[in-house]
Design brief:
Strand order of the largest sheet: 6-7-8-5-9
Distance between the termini: 36 Å
Shape: globular
Number of helices: 5
Strand content: 25-35%
Helix content: 25-40%
């Protein structure tokens, strides 16, 4: 999941797979202004920082305690109000394909919305006659599968994962065969397959609130806090939107630093 970020942050100190809780340092401006981060489970200190940037809107969810809800109410309320739609993903290891691409956005496909050759990510091994692919189900397909799983009594996490493998492996094999550079290529053999569900994967609309950088990001200089991500416009729910939001926020923060 974080291979691309690791590649981009080469040489930058970063901590992964760690959920943090942010607490405001002091009560006002001056030397006390800033944030303290603690490990959400152990409570161990993760450091003190002058500015806090949040890229995950679920940090504002009611059941999470990651942010000071009272202090950041102008962000938390609209962020938690952005609806999300679930996503189903199929991860497979297959015999080497002859597909001449590493990722593909599928618009209007009845089953899939996006494909990616996972082994093409930075630091991932390639070769050996095996490739790893990730396929996201289309929103309509995800709704259909989830509804079917609930009707069969298999709406729990395990039942959904099994349904993803059972229902999506055959159409993915056919699709990879159709997309192969080799004419008439047989569907690749699936060596390993796993299903996954994100309950709140993609925002269904954009964040909208005062201070949101024309809807591209959120910046609260008084509380030394900012937010960006794929839940901002112009492309909510897409990596392009996340990239644009993050880049524009970075530009705004650098401009702020240059004039301070």
């Amino acid at each position: 999941m974080n291979a691309i970020c690791r590649g981009l942050l080469d040489g930058v100190e970063a901590r992964y797979e760690t959920r943090a809780v942010a607490m405001r340092r002091g009560g006002g401006g001056g030397a006390d202004r800033g944030w303290v981060l603690e490990h959400a489970k152990s409570g161990s200190a993760l450091g003190e920082y002058d500015f806090l940037i949040c890229t995950d809107k679920t940090a504002a969810a009611q059941h999470r305690k990651d942010l000071d809800r009272e202090l950041l109410d102008d962000f938390v309320q609209p962020a938690s109000a952005v609806p999300s739609v679930p996503s189903l993903a199929l991860m497979v290891a297959v015999e080497q394909t002859r597909c001449g691409f590493d990722s593909l956005l599928l618009e209007g496909h009845p089953t899939f919305s996006w494909l990616a050759r996972d082994s093409s990510k930075p630091g991932r091994r390639q070769g050996g006659g095996v490739e790893c692919w990730v396929a996201h189900a289309s929103p309509d397909c995800a709704k259909r599968l989830l509804k079917s799983s609930r009707r069969r009594g298999g709406g729990g996490p395990r039942g959904v994962r099994e349904a993803v493998v059972r229902e999506l492996v055959p159409p993915l094999q056919r699709l990879l065969s159709e997309l192969s550079d080799a004419v008439g290529a047989a569907p690749p053999e699936v060596l390993v397959a796993e299903g996954h569900r994100w309950g709140a994967a993609f925002p269904a609309s954009s964040f909208a609130a005062a201070g949101s950088g024309e809807g591209r990001f959120y910046l609260d200089e008084r509380n030394a806090f900012a937010a960006c991500g794929d839940y901002f416009s112009p492309f909510p729910g897409r990596v392009e939107g996340a990239w644009i939001s993050g880049t524009l926020l970075a530009d705004a923060l650098l401009a702020r630093q240059a004039t301070s």
